């Protein structure tokens, strides 16, 4: 495809290979750290004062947070059992960094609702967002749901649907 100048095909293949690589990396982490779906790999947030608030959790699950992109994503998850990767990042980042709820709650909810739930990949994703993997984001890096909405849904089509 690269020789033919098919950039869309080349991009598609690269995204597919990246996804396979991430899946295999999550398997590697899980095999070598079998507790990774229960506790963080890095202990620097071990004593973080998570907000153990059932009302926040319920509002997030039901898509009633007041943030249109987050709410649309959570309603889509409940209705279809599926979320686009970018929306997964937005709703999980909001869950952990804005609501400051324990990441294991969100991971468990994804496990219960996603049709393509995968324990190793989901644990890796939630730990990546939380900042408890050796190569993850910093905890204070927040995916602003309003900015993400302007960037990826500028006309509000996703939110309306």
Automatic annotation (TrEMBL):
Q: Which cofactor does it need?
A: FAD
Q: Which residue numbers delimit the Cryptochrome/DNA photolyase FAD-binding domain?
A: 16-161
At the top level, the lineage of the source is: Eukaryota
According to UniProt, residues marked as the site described as Electron transfer via tryptophanyl radical are: 50, 103, 126
**Which residues are involved in binding FAD?**
16, 116-118
Example GO CC term: the record gives: nucleus
Keywords from the UniProt entry:
Chromophore, FAD, Flavoprotein
Q: Which PROSITE patterns match?
A: DNA_PHOTOLYASES_1_1, DNA_PHOTOLYASES_1_2
Which Gene Ontology terms cover its molecular function?
A: deoxyribodipyrimidine photo-lyase activity; DNA binding; FAD binding
Biological process terms in GO annotation: circadian regulation of gene expression; entrainment of circadian clock by photoperiod; nucleobase-containing compound metabolic process; response to stress
- What remark does the entry make about the cofactor? Binds 1 FAD per subunit.
Signal peptide residues on this chain, from the entry's feature table: none
Family note: Belongs to the DNA photolyase class-1 family.
Q: What name appears for this protein in its UniProt entry?
A: Cryptochrome 1
* Originating species: Capsella bursa-pastoris
Starting at the broadest rank, the lineage of the source organism is: Eukaryota, Viridiplantae, Streptophyta, Embryophyta, Tracheophyta
